[in-house]
Design goal:
The protein is mainly α. The protein contains five helices and no strands. The chain starts with a helix and ends with a helix.
């Protein structure tokens, strides 16, 4: 996770792609999945996108917000910025091994 965040911050997120793929992939799709992974691994569940939002991003129905956009705009954007951007800047993003029933029921 730290490695992906670091490469994202350096503007080279595709550097984390497994070289065994021999560049046989669609860069746009891989970049979307990696950035979406960053969104989905935020520490606070209420900062993560819902499964409905994830599906819309993966189907290209909605554009994935750029991290710079998460600071401003709608309530979703400001909600994301307070947790994820702080975690990015401090390097404190972590993945919890415990899933609560409440977060599963809430579709997160």
């Amino acid at each position: 996770m730290d490695w992906v965040v670091e490469n994202y911050q350096l503007g080279q997120i595709l550097e984390v792609v497994d070289p065994k793929l021999n560049s046989v992939y669609v860069e746009e799709e891989v970049e979307l999945v990696l950035k979406l992974g960053l969104l989905c691994t935020q520490h606070r569940a209420d900062f993560r996108p819902t499964m409905r939002e994830v599906a819309r991003y993966l189907n290209w129905d909605d554009p994935l917000p750029e991290i710079a956009d998460w600071r401003h705009g709608d309530s979703q954007s400001s909600r994301l910025s307070s947790g994820f951007l702080q975690a990015l800047s401090t390097g404190s993003i972590s993945i919890s091994n415990n899933l609560s029933t409440m977060s599963i029921e809430a579709g997160r």
